Amino acid sequence: ADPRVGAPIPPELWRLGEALKPHFDYPELFSGASDEAVASVRAAVDAGGGAPDDANPRAVAAALTSLLAALARPVVAPERLPRLGFQDADHLRSWTEAFLTNLPDAEHNVVSYVLALLRTVLKKGDATPAELSAVACAGLMPYS
């Protein structure tokens, strides 16, 4: 088993993820929210609390993606990506394994946490795989 599983992630990310959990089935969850609503959620989370109880779930989702995109350096730096050159599913699995294995612990935990959240949104919500891929790329690899 990977010793990094269960290791901590940034508390702000965790609080936003927890606030999203009851709303994974919210229609068009990642379709955006007003700047004011996102700023309100970010301010509450940055101050050490959770998202306000009356926060629109889309504002919480947008706060999560904006938090990731606003980091001084991206969660997944371009040099961390293994060279892409697969032709079939077996190569995709080995590429993914190499990618995750070579990430430093902190980045590995954030990637794993965000992808687990998005996987649950995919199962429970109305988002498509393409939409959630775009969310993941925008948050984890904003240069892509």
Largest sheet: none
Give the N-to-C terminal Cα separation: 31 Å
Contiguous runs where pLDDT drops below 50 for at least 5 residues: none
Instruction: Count helical runs.
Output: 6
Q: Structural class, from helix and strand content?
A: mainly alpha
Strand segment count: 0
Portion in beta strands: under 5%
Radius of gyration using CA atoms only: 16 Å
Task: Give, in order, the helices and strands.
Answer: HHHHHH
| Relative helix content | 55-70%
**pLDDT averaged residue by residue:** 86
The global form is globular
Give structural attributes.
6 helices; globular; mainly alpha; 0% strand; 144 residues; 56% helix; single chain
Walkthrough of the structure:
Helix content is 56%, strand content 0%. With 144 residues, the protein is mainly alpha-helical. It starts with 10 loop residues before the first helix and ends with a helix.
Write a short abstract of this structure.
By secondary structure, the protein is an all-alpha fold.
